[in-house]
């Protein structure tokens, strides 16, 4: 495995979606532009979900239209259904993502359907995106713990990963949505996923609720995973995951990887500036 690690920036979407106060479109654009100057190659910029459910993301098209797109940077968006995909295509996103779960209860709370129903919904979305030349990433939430069901069996995660990969997603991002994962349980979960998806096609998304995110990244690195989601300033949380703290801070991940001898291509000073601005957008900041 290469010592190069790809970092996927979550702040503009996952980082801001749960903020209580409305964030202006101009501030969202400024955040993306600051992040684009750091050396990051992947930035999740928007979410084309129903504004009724996630009002903070209602201006996704305006954000996509306003950012300064840098060569070599991929600007991505979440698309839960065909309507969301149509909006994403119109906004000229570079890549889309579909988001499922390994917990039945979380799936119902988050996207109002069972796991099997969600996978059936994703199939035409993925097929259409691929026909339009858009790469598709697949997210799996609650890969170690669920806020409603407790611990999740590794096999449940592997089963969802298998179906997503068969659908045509280029990468499966496994998410510790409430940050209760530990290195041993993350390893067990990844072992189950690796039965169906090679390490090069796995991303990992850790929240730092219990302060274990960096430990879990190290456990993932040991198994060959080289793509990680993180959020400048540690912004984030899920509106359907009570008690979930923010994503692991991008700057902490970069510092750890640098110290451990991995290459990220990130300019730390520019990232610090972006992280400071991201934190200024927090409610009450």
Describe this structure in words.
With 285 residues, the chain is of the alpha/beta class. The protein has one domain: Aldolase class I (TIM Barrel), CATH 3.20.20. It is 41% helix and 16% strand. It is built from eleven helices and ten strands. The strands form two sheets. Strands 1-2-3-4-5-8-9-10 form an eight-stranded parallel barrel, surrounded by seven helices. The protein has a two-stranded antiparallel sheet with strand order 6-7. The longest helix is centred in the middle third of the chain and has 17 residues. The protein starts with 5 loop residues before the first strand and ends in a 5-residue tail after the last helix. About 2% of the residues have low confidence.
Question: What's a concise summary of this model?
Answer:
This protein is of the alpha/beta class and 285 residues long. It has eleven helices and ten strands.
Mean pLDDT: 93
The CATH architecture assignment turns out to be Alpha-Beta Barrel
Q: Which structural class is indicated by helix and strand composition?
A: alpha/beta
Helical fraction: 40-55%
How many helical elements? 11
Contiguous runs where pLDDT drops below 50 for at least 5 residues = 239-243
The proportion of residues in beta strands is 15-25%
As an assembly, this protein is single chain
């Amino acid at each position: 495995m290469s010592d190069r690690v790809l970092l996927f920036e979550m702040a503009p979407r996952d980082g801001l979606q749960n903020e209580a106060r409305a964030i202006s479109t101009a501030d969202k654009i400024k955040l993306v532009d600051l992040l684009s100057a750091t050396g990051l190659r992947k930035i999740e910029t928007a979410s084309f979900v129903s504004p009724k459910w996630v009002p903070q993301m209602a201006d996704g098209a305006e954000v996509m239209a306003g950012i300064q797109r840098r060569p070599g940077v991929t600007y991505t968006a979440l698309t839960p259904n065909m309507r969301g995909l149509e909006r994403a295509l119109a906004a000229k996103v570079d890549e889309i993502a579909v988001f499922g779960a390994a917990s039945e209860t979380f799936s119902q709370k988050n996207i109002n359907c069972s796991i099997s129903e969600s996978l059936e919904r994703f199939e035409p979305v993925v097929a259409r995106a691929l026909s339009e030349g858009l790469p598709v990433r697949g997210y799996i939430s609650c890969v170690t713990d669920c806020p409603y069901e407790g611990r999740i069996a590794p096999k449940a995660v592997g089963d969802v990963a298998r179906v997503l990969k068969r659908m045509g997603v280029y990468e499966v991002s496994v998410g510790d949505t409430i940050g209760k994962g530990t290195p041993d349980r993350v390893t067990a979960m990844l072992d189950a996923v690796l039965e169906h998806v090679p390490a090069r096609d796995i991303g990992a998304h850790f929240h730092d609720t219990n302060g274990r995110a960096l430990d879990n990244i190290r456990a993932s690195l040991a198994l060959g995973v080289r793509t990680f989601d993180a959020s400048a300033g540690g912004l984030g949380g899920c509106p359907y995951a009570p008690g979930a703290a923010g994503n692991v801070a991008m700057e902490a991940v970069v510092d750890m990887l640098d110290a451990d001898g991995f290459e990220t291509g990130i300019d730390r000073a520019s990232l610090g500036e972006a992280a400071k601005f991201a934190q200024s957008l927090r409610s009450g900041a």
